[in-house]
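Protocol step 4 of 5: obtain the predicted structure for the target chain.
Materials: sequence only (see below). No template structures provided, no constraints applied. The aim of this step is simply to have a reference model before the mutagenesis design in step 5. Sequence pasted as it appears in the construct record:
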Amino acid sequence: MRRFLSLQVALVLLGLFAFSACADRDLERTDEAEEISQNIDRQNAPPPPPAPQAEYFFDGQARRAMSGTGDDSWRYAPPVDREGYAHIEEIGFQSAADVPLSTFSIDVDRASYSNTRRILNGGRLPPPDAVRIEEFVNYFDYQYEGPKEGADHPFEVHTEVATAPWNSEHRLVRIALQGERIETENLPPANLVFLIDVSGSMGSPDKLPLLIRSFHLLVDELRPEDRVSIVVYAGAAGLVLEPTRGDQKAVIRQA
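Step 4 output (structure tokens):
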């Protein structure tokens, strides 16, 4: 009887072992089938979308830099527009009968014209506050005559009145001042010291390269009695050009 029970237990254990082995083989086949199915799905799947792009403006042109490609320059790219301009308040029409007094500055500014031209050449419209009509007008040379020698005042006034094109009842008045022109050779000696930022942020064409081109124009106007010194900071620091006579133009340009 005991042998019979032992034989039954052995058969039951053998059956359980065989069932477990079969179950393990079935699980292995299932895992292999799932892995094969996943490989097929990956092969047939569409390509992943490209890495996100950062868009920015540099030197007036739209640029894109891919992230995740080892090129992290987009992280340090300038924002779309970092330029800021003081808001211009339009005063509207003013009646001369109510407001007979009008003042204007004789300090001539012309930068708005060149700045607006730069923005347009870069393919963008300028911000409204960057457009200053008076600086557009002042940009051009109208060949006004200056005060005659021995005149009582150091400037000459030129006026002109014309009918407004949009309303024949209105008049336009142009008032122009021409100061005394002083010849360059009559100016006192100049001692020019330039402190220049040479950091990486100055590398765009409208910054340090533009300054260098302007500097070459200045060198052409220097006289022997003038002196020029250059000191740099940021990307490099120190004295680049010791005080140098204006007639040593090659030395100044090489600095």
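Step 4 remarks: Confidence is low (pLDDT under 50) at residues 1-21, 51-80. The two ends are 113 Å apart (CA to CA).
Proceed to step 5.
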